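Quick one, tokens below:
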């Protein structure tokens, strides 16, 4: 399996974080359940199945992993939206997407983007077509709350040390305003968003470290101890940390901030 994130052109960035692509390769199982780690954001995606079947979808922010069926030859691509972008672009209330996977509503601009994503899924060189189709979706739409976008980036950079009062002070708003605006834009609270990224950070670090180092990794990511980390993994993914890291380790990950492989390919 292969998962990669791709930077988008600057004009897309007020609304989107990155473009992503997931592929089930020829040496992978014929059929299995794929675990999608939560990222606290909304993705517009297109899944393409062998034989030509396609499905456009909206995946909302969630504190629990989504588990979806995957088959040999399947490929999917999507755009991960900035917090607050989905209500502006689609439009749909952020709270109505929390924990949900829904079909992408049909419209001229949505259908154009879905077609571009399907093309990109088959040929990852076609980033410009996706960007152009996505920008057509933004025409005449308000830019998402920049304070929420700034808050989200600050949390992602250091989720282990979130203090809502300190973050609000840095953004020059009250803690109550921060909670209200973040919840309205993303559907989840700043605290829940930070919990998601603490766990993502720990899992990414665990991929490249032995089990003996996981207690230190858990502490660095902001968990009280390894038992706290283990409980959080079980609650989020429904499996043990060993099972989760073994599965994630079977995927060649390349992230937008560093497009180098995390393991040999």
């Amino acid at each position: 399996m292969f998962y990669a994130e791709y930077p988008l052109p600057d004009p897309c960035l007020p609304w989107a974080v990155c473009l992503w692509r997931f592929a089930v390769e020829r040496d992978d199982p014929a059929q299995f359940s794929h675990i999608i780690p939560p990222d606290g954001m909304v993705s517009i995606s297109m899944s393409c199945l062998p034989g030509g079947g396609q499905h456009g979808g909206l995946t909302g922010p969630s504190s629990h992993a989504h588990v979806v069926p995957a088959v040999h030859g399947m490929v999917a691509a999507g755009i991960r939206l900035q917090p607050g972008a989905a209500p502006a672009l689609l439009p749909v209330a952020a709270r109505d997407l929390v924990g949900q996977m829904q079909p992408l509503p049909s419209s001229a601009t949505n259908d154009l983007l879905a077609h571009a994503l399907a093309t990109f899924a088959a040929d990852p060189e076609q980033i410009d077509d996706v960007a152009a189709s996505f920008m057509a979706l933004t025409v005449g739409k308000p830019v998402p709350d920049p304070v929420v976008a700034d808050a989200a980036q600050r949390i992602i950079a250091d989720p282990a040390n979130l203090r809502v009062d300190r973050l609000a002070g840095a953004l020059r708003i009250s803690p109550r305003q921060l909670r209200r605006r973040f919840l309205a834009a993303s559907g989840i609270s700043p605290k829940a968003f930070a919990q998601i990224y603490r766990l993502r950070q720990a899992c990414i670090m665990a991929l490249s470290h032995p089990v003996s180092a996981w207690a230190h990794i858990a502490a660095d990511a902001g968990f009280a101890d390894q038992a706290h980390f283990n409980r959080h993994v079980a609650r989020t993914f429904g499996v043990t940390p060993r099972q989760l890291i073994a599965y994630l380790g079977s995927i060649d990950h390349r992230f937008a901030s560093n497009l180098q492989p995390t393991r040999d390919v």
